[in-house]
Design a protein that fits this description.
Elements lengths: L16 E5 L3 E6 L7 E4 L1 E3 L6 E3 L6 H19 L8 E6 L5 H14 L4 E6 H5 L8 E6 L4 E7 L2 E2 L5 E3 L3 H15 L7 H11 L5 H6 L12 E3 L5 E3 L1 H6 L14 H11 L5 H5 L2 E4 L8 H13 L2 H4 L19 H9 L9 E2 H7 L17
Parallel strand pairs: 1-6, 6-7, 8-14
Antiparallel strand pairs: 1-2, 2-3, 4-5, 7-15, 8-9, 9-10, 9-11, 12-13
Helix pairs in contact: 1-2, 4-5, 8-10
């Protein structure tokens, strides 16, 4: 047991450790630092079956608890090299995080690891602190979903939030299916598909996309050879079509560009222009070459369509460039928040053991002010 604590350090009282536990990757590090100490996959070897499992692919609460025990044990003692006892922790969370997950995580941190305090921080709210601004329309395109929340003067406009099941997972599934047809003898795993996506694929332009699959389709980009145990030739059509699923509208006529326009329409009229000129993209999927350019072209085309022309009188969309890579911008925001003393947003061990619940800051019950 003592060997688990070899090299483990005790943090100063005021320093916080920041965890951004995403569905595909987890970022970790300390408050006040400009980059995370590391980025690891959100997966762990199951102690019972000895299989590698993703944390979010749990069966029930008990299964989730066991997976989180193993995962956080690794985070604390192998990666951050710190003692969790009496530590101060910031966990970034998506608005779509299941209550079961956050409650189980809090129970584990307070009762099993005995941390001192926990701050659950919204990914979208933390992100804008990296810009030094209080107003932005934050679009997070991650592994399984795309979520969007407009924030005006530091206040999230929750009635305008948007979400769609569009993310990197759809791209991986397309590549795995397409490459198995091209190279039937190759073992195309999701990890391999992800590496091929990052190295060879891109988001095509709106003009080329409109002609794909038609009689006058443009010449496909050149094929490339992916080096590995067996070289795999990636056809140009697959490279160009990999991200098209993110822009195709579903049966409800929704896609990533419509998320932005629908959110702006639901915001107060005097905030719309400001939000349209302060769009911020985060999440690993937005790092793809051509993503921001394609999104802007889609927005300018849609805003002039019959459906949006009468509802939205905005002709300009501007995007922020964060001081970090989009895949860890939210973590950087958490690192900034961790340097500020916000006792009202932290759940202490004493308060948790009394109430046995984690406050939900979007719930009016946890946001009532005492009468003077």
């Amino acid at each position: 047991m003592l060997r688990n604590y070899e090299g483990v350090r005790f943090l100063p009282d005021k320093q916080m450790v920041i965890f951004d536990i995403g569905r595909a990757y987890t970022k970790f590090g300390y408050a006040g630092e400009t980059t995370p100490r590391g980025i690891i996959r959100t997966e762990v070897v199951c102690p019972e079956t000895k299989e590698l499992r993703k944390i979010y692919d749990y069966k029930d609460t008990e299964d989730l608890y066991q997976l989180l025990v193993e995962f956080l044990q690794s985070l604390f003692f192998r990666h951050t090299l710190m003692s969790p006892k009496d530590a101060r922790v910031v966990v970034l969370e998506s608005p779509l995080t299941p209550s079961e997950f956050r409650d189980t995580l809090a129970k584990l941190l307070f009762r099993h690891f005995e941390i001192r305090s926990l701050m659950l921080l919204s990914v979208h709210l933390a992100t804008i602190s990296t810009l030094g601004t209080s107003t932005a329309l934050v679009l997070d395109v991650g592994y399984t979903e795309a979520t969007l929340i407009p924030i005006y003067e530091g206040v999230p406009i929750l009635k305008a939030w948007q979400a769609l099941p569009l993310g990197g997972k759809i791209v991986h599934e397309y590549l795995m299916k397409s490459l198995k047809e091209v190279a039937p003898n190759a073992d195309i795993t999701e990890k391999l598909a992800e590496d091929i996506k990052v190295r060879t694929c891109f988001v095509t332009t709106l003009e080329r996309s409109a002609k794909l699959g038609t009689a006058n389709a443009p010449a496909p980009p050149p094929s490339v050879v992916y080096p590995g145990v067996k070289n795999i030739t990636i056809p140009g059509e697959i490279r160009e079509n990999a991200f098209e699923a993110l822009w195709e509208r579903d049966r409800d006529n929704l896609s990533i560009p419509t998320m932005i326009l629908d959110a702006i329409i639901k915001c107060p009229i005097d905030t719309r222009r400001t939000l349209a000129e302060n769009i911020m993209l985060i999440g690993g999927t937005t790092m793809t070459k051509g993503f921001a350019s394609r999104l802007k072209s889609e927005l300018l085309t849609l805003v002039n369509s019959n459906y949006y022309a009468d509802k939205l009188k905005i002709k300009t969309f501007k995007f922020h460039t964060a001081p970090s890579k989009p895949n860890y911008t939210a973590w950087l925001g958490g690192a900034i928040f961790g340097t500020i003393d916000l006792p009202s947003r932290c759940v202490t061990k004493e308060n948790y053991l009394k109430s046995n619940r984690v406050p939900d800051w979007t719930n009016l019950i946890d946001n009532q002010r005492d009468d003077p």
